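Lab manual, section 2.4: Encoding a predicted structure.

Procedure: take the sequence of the chain (306 residues), apply the prediction step described in section 2.3, and record the output as structure tokens. A sample record is shown.
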Amino acid sequence: MEGQAPKTVDLLAEFESSGARGVLEELDRDLIGLKPVKDRIRETAALLLVERARKSLGLAHETPTLHMSFTGNPGTGKTTVALKMAGLLHRLGYVRKGHLVSVTRDDLVGQYIGHTAPKTKEVLKKAMGGVLFIDEAYYLYRPDNERDYGQEAIEILLQVMENMRDDLVVILAGYADRMESFFQSNPGFRSRIAHHIEFPDYADEELLRIVKHMLAAQNYTLSAEAEAAFTGYIRLRRTQPHFANARSIRNAFDRARLRQANRLFQEAKGALNAAALSRIEAVDISASRVFQGGLLAERKAKETTK
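Recorded output:
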């Protein structure tokens, strides 16, 4: 109608009605730290909101490519963020279902001729309308083995990533250096992935906050002495082999619960109240082998510097 005001879109209202705010708030609540990662997720949400607005106003728009690479050490939250990303993409209308399918090489690559294609296609079928998360993606490519079938899975993935990008988001994850080598050997992946997100290691203070979060979720508490012991545990554990950030801290918490339960049973002399059943003491932490190995390593290091 002539003289009618141009149609407008309220981005904030769209944001609220989509449910995207709830996903971002969950991300902040459930994951400690990771500020650069959370910033990138918010940027993605903003991009999709603007694209929705442009589409509703009849402006030229093109579905953005959201295939991603998550790089970082184990236990830095890559799988958890992928799950949150799937929910966010669904609420903002990018994917139909918003589910996450998490796989490794073994789920995609067969062991004999004719086995890989159906395995890979079955996984892709399950993932359609959501997010496919491929952990340790560099294991798909094994150039040293002429009889390896990983390349067949790669070719199928590349084709689907290009042709079905408006109905599937693929996230490749793994160590940063190995992922870089993988992209150099497979430029087709690099050209299809527009978003590279690096997951930093957690600081000691963040790891302590993570364990407190785990404790609170299961109605446990740390005594003041136990908190000091856990601080020392984190410092020592970080220097030892196979450290996996939050994953290692979760394992330490589980072992502390085991020691606490055994201590309470061994010392039981009557009724226990909720506080006693819920409190982790320093002895439940300091009995860890991490202290024995870590303190021994520290002593050796001091002796070599004398």
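Check your result against the sample. Residues 54 and 61 are 7 Å apart (CA to CA).
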